[in-house]
Amino acid sequence: MQLDLIKSLFLAYRESHLNHRYITNAHMAPLLDQLKKTIPVEVIGTSVLNNPIYGLQIGTGPKRILMWSQMHGNESTTTKAIFDLLNTLLSDEAAVAPILNGCTLYIIPILNPDGAQAYTRVNANEVDLNRDAQALTQPESKVLRAIFKSFKPHYCYNLHGQRTIFSAGATNKSATVSFLSPAQDAACTITPNRKVAMEVIAVMNAALQQIIPQQVGVYDDAFNLNCVGDTFQSENVPTILFEAGHFNNDYARDITREYIYTSYLVSLNYIALNEVTGAHYVPYLEIPENEKLFLDLIIRNVSKKQGSGEDEVAIGILYQERLVDGRIEFVPIVDKIGDLNGFYAHREIDAKGQEVYNEQGEPLKVNNENVCVIMNNEKISLLPK
């Protein structure tokens, strides 16, 4: 499928009712009501707080693909892209017919509705569902496991979002999209099963390199059987971790959603039209591994009076995401002060040797919250632009 076609499909079928970072069952409910008129939508279980967990099925093909999003409640970009995808698949576009004829998708749009509502990673019992694959202590974990057993997928798409700190390798390129073919044993053996997932990821990477060059990474494949991806991979179902990351000035993640959408269509089309054997897995190994080299903002060349003797001092800021009145706000927190020459930033401010103070006229300190700073008697906002 050509990238210019995918772009046009995204623009035509992007779900306009889902935007920014806060996506919950309440946002999704009217969309599901519409989908029920066309495809099966069911409640497959309930959360700790008795909120419904929905599942839906689309396509009639023999290759079964299980997709679940918002296992971590505050990772919503892949959910937005799911509804963009559903709108596309339910259109009369001939380009998506091979996917519908070749695949059957079972999708859980929000696995952790309580975490989505509270905008937290964990569920209402403060359990990370992605560390509960073996113990299955939580109702949400049991729901996913039950669908896995009944649907018997040939592929699993484990859909997540990642922080702004990740670089695609040791570079100044943000990891806008990341992937992983999880390990299925402690030795991280490149098994035939993993090769299949690697081949699909390599195809997605080849497409993304044309639109976000050098902004794709992979995660360390250290084995943890408590993780869902590792568990499903260990049961010989090729599993792919998707991670939606940061694109320049896209703190709403409404640009990144297009790259996730692109990844969905490219991979599903490839699976539908090919017998994926894993023979073409090697390009996966060339994708750089993510490193944590980014801060949201760095103020460089700050007067050394505010440091600890270095000739140049820099102040590194990370944004903390907070749910305020149904919307996510980004709060600047001082993360590091010192020599930050090994770090990159999504935005930089040159202090030009000036001292930098908070609004109370005090030097900045690590862990302090600062919406703005005073520099050369000028107030400068630290909020995302």
TrEMBL record:
Its EC number is 3.4.17.-. PANTHER family: PROTEASE FAMILY M14 CARBOXYPEPTIDASE A,B, SLL0236 PROTEIN. SUPFAM superfamilies: Zn-dependent exopeptidases (SSF53187). Residues 16-288 form the Peptidase M14 domain. Belongs to the peptidase M14 family. GO terms for molecular function: carboxypeptidase activity. It comes from Mariniflexile aquimaris. CDD domains: M14-like (cd06239). Keywords: Carboxypeptidase, Hydrolase, Metalloprotease, Protease, Zinc. Its cofactor is Zn(2+). It holds the Pfam family Peptidase_M14. This is M14 metallopeptidase family protein.
